[in-house]
Design a protein that fits this description.
Layout lengths: L1 E5 H11 L13 E6 L3 E7 L4 E7 L10 E5 H12 L6 E7 L2 E5 L4 E5 L9 H9 L13 H4 L10 E3 L7 E5 L2 E5 L15 H12 L27 H21 L5 H27 L1 H17 L2 H11 L4 H21 L32 H14 L5 H10 L10 H12 L2 H10 L1 H12 L3 H9 L14 E4 L2 E4 H7 L1
Antiparallel strand pairs: 1-6, 2-3, 2-5, 3-4, 6-7, 7-8, 9-10, 10-11, 12-13
Helix pairs in contact: 1-2, 6-7, 7-8, 7-13, 7-14, 11-15, 12-15, 12-16, 14-15, 15-16
């Protein structure tokens, strides 16, 4: 079929809806749908969150079956530029060929590849569902669209309250309030369609062709999975990715082999980094949403470019650090790993399943004593951190760390804490400091036990007078319920 429209009007149709196009990850929405019936040519676009429809009454001389094709977003700029070069008095005839949408004038034509069988949401039914929602028909103020754009800086989300037809609407956002008067005239004449009923009737014939009962929340196509290498450029998408990475890394940590300390450290560090990044992004978004969007966009470009490692090196040097020394220290650490692995004791018995807390039964073997103090330079650095950044250590944390190193007064923690402590033990200094961001209390207690002369004794004082509820033994280690500790001998007796 074919339909003819003035070139200027075709350009206006595209301009009115192009801002509502869906992303490339929802292919059926990534473009503008041109839809023709016996009366109107429609341009439709939606990104699942908004739907925009613009229409033009054609001359009624269309030929053949109704036309419905989606112009891919990648061709819209070219199409719009081609339309702008056409003289206003000439019409543009839109027709279809197999796999093509043809735009023709008396002097030239443009052909765009399309997918003839591509489906598109039933926009008539979706909007019909919105329009037919129950509500007060008396509240139907006209709002100047240019004024509406002014609220964009108020925040990502705003709320409005309409109290009366001819009164100002109230606008609310986080730490923000405002108002906007309704528009009574559109430049040279009163606003058309003064009531909701008039507006509804003007579109009634079109919307009747849509299905009943459709809802934008449930009847829109879902977004396709993004490629694993694709970086999200939106704040909500980045937040979802960071939270997903946090949960995934925690799950991987719990499932990692207990004798693979490198994998455990990697999973723990990945989870801590993802959680830390989420907290920083959430704080930035709370303080300045626009800056958060800008940073996320810039970050996506940097990650896609792939040269952020070189940038980090330059930033570290400019900040007065010595990245070359960091590199050399890490390479030396890697060279020491084989010797450390050969000297390591065999792994302890498997811990209880996740979610349990030392159910009665034979206690896990005691861990070895804390490793010898670190070299002077490293230990000095760690002690400087301990003196200024170590939080208050809770008795329970002290008991867990004492158990880790087989000291009196220790108490076996759950599986997750056991794996986390093994990861902290296996990590180098840089990664220990990263783990400290997410688990400051536990890391502080373990560093105290390993590096402070009186670290174990201090943790024992914090742990307090833990004793067996059967024989009052205070030596430990202890098992049993959290507030009903049993010494090793009594635990075996009750097994």
């Amino acid at each position: 079929m074919s339909v003819t429209i003035n070139a200027h009007q075709l350009g206006r149709l595209i301009d009115k809806v192009r801002g509502h196009i869906g992303s490339e990850y929802t292919e059926v929405l990534h473009g503008i749908r041109l839809d023709v019936d016996s009366t109107y040519l429609y341009a439709v676009a939606t990104d699942r969150y908004t739907v925009a429809v613009a229409r033009y009454r054609h001359d009624g001389e269309q030929n053949g079956e109704p036309l419905a094709r989606t112009v891919p977003a990648s061709y819209l700029r070219t199409l719009r530029e081609w339309i702008s070069t056409q003289e206003g008095q000439f019409g543009v005839t839109i027709s279809t060929k197999v796999g093509r949408l043809v735009f023709a004038t008396p002097h030239t034509e443009m052909r765009i590849p399309v997918t003839d069988s591509q489906e598109f949401p039933d926009w008539r039914g979706l909007i019909r569902g919105v329009v037919n929602q129950p509500g007060s028909e008396e509240l139907f103020p006209a709002l100047n669209s240019g004024f509406l754009a002014r609220w964009a800086e108020a925040g990502d989300n705003i709320r409005v309250r309409v109290a009366a037809e001819d009164k100002a609407i109230a606008v609310f956002a986080d730490d923000f309030i405002g108002a906007q008067m309704p528009a009574r005239y559109s430049g040279v004449s009163p606003v058309k369609q003064q009531t909701f009923g008039e507006a509804q009737n003007a579109w009634g014939w079109t919307l009747l062709q849509g299905a009943d009962g459709l809802d934008m929340a449930t009847d829109m196509p879902a977004e396709q999975d993004r490629p694993y290498y694709e970086t999200d450029t939106s704040v909500p998408g980045t937040v979802a990715s960071l939270l997903q990475q946090t949960l995934r890394s925690t799950s991987d940590l719990l499932g990692a082999p207990s004798d693979d300390s490198g994998a455990m450290a990697s999973f723990a560090i990945a989870g801590v980094n993802a959680w830390s990044a989420y907290r920083f992004l959430a704080a930035l978004h709370q303080a300045d949403p626009r800056l958060a969007e800008q940073v996320v966009g810039e970050l996506a470009e940097e990650l896609d470019a792939g040269d952020f490692s070189e940038t980090a090196w330059s930033i570290a040097e400019a900040a007065g650090h010595d990245p070359q020394k960091w590199h050399d220290d890490y390479e030396a650490h890697l060279l020491r790993l084989p010797a450390m692995g050969a000297a390591a004791p065999p792994p302890a018995a498997s811990p209880p399943p996740p979610g349990t807390r030392s159910a009665p039964g034979p206690p896990s073997p005691r861990r070895g004593p804390p490793p010898p103090p670190a070299p002077r330079g490293t230990r000095h650095l760690l002690e400087s951190h301990m003196s200024t950044e170590t939080p208050t250590i809770a008795p329970e944390t002290a008991r867990h760390v004492l158990w880790q190193y087989g000291a009196d007064g220790g108490y076996q923690p759950g599986t997750g804490t056991q794996r986390l402590m093994e990861a902290i033990d296996a990590a180098d200094m840089v990664n220990v400091e990263r783990l400290r961001l997410g688990f400051p209390e536990l890391v502080g207690a373990m560093l105290a036990a390993k590096n402070d002369i009186d670290g174990i004794a201090r943790l024992q004082r914090i742990a307090g007078g833990l004793c067996c509820i059967r024989c009052s033994d205070t030596d430990g280690p202890f098992g049993g319920a959290p507030k009903q500790p049993l010494c090793e001998r009594c635990l075996k007796a009750t097994a």
